[in-house]
Please model this.
Amino acid sequence: MAPVRENRTLRILDAAAAGNYGVLAAIAYNIEQLTALVRAAESRRSPLIIQLFPSTLRQLPTLAFAAAQYVKTAAVPISLHIDHAQDASHIREIMQTLPVDSIMVDMSHYDQTENLEKTRKLAKECHDCGIAVEAESGRINGGEDGIADTGDLEALFTTPEDVEDFIKVDIDILAPSIGNIHGDYGLTGPAEGQLHYDRLESINKQINNRVLIALHGTNDFPEDVMKRCIRSGATKLNVNKLLLEVWNEFYRKNAAAMPLVKLIDQGMDVLQKETERWMDVCGSSGKA
Model:
């Protein structure tokens, strides 16, 4: 087994950190979205991290293998990441049976002590399989598809102590809480002062290249907010609605009247163009 630091996700993010740009870690729910994302990466010569939710693995068990095939054959660096894996037995099943590069071991719905202990154990098992590990420090409010909703829990910002605690349990990627939320901010994006860029900058300085930084909660981000987060140290940029809303809107408007094959083709084109635009915004275009 190759050292975990040599796995695809970490190679992609190490290059981004060194080059001061961000990499989209994009959620896909089906083969059409997956294909459009990869086409965008190849068109823009950009690295890409494909993300699948654990719920998607249950719904579409072959999608991970389709993504892994793209990882092997794409003309640019691509990796496969499982986002917000919250069930220890499912995490163990994933690491033993699926060709993934990295897993978010999300124990943030437990208290801090239990979160750290469970993360430590699962990180060791993942690393033994050559799989990189992401974890969430603090608590990012809200819920996403198929994961526990923390909206009724107090939002906890990541502290310097949190950073050290998570580094000690041997994770590779840290997702801090800086005022970001899982869910929607509204049409204009985060409110003024909602995102604590100074906290993100301080975390990045404290980390000092020991781990990498993932940014969660990017729904409704304007371009300038994304760019500022990248300048503040975020390299792995989790995106879901930010890209997929154009796909959703296209289908809402056209599904009833357009022939299916045409609908699929044009929907993929719409998503590819939006993904290319955000690769330009994040600075990853031309980096592969």
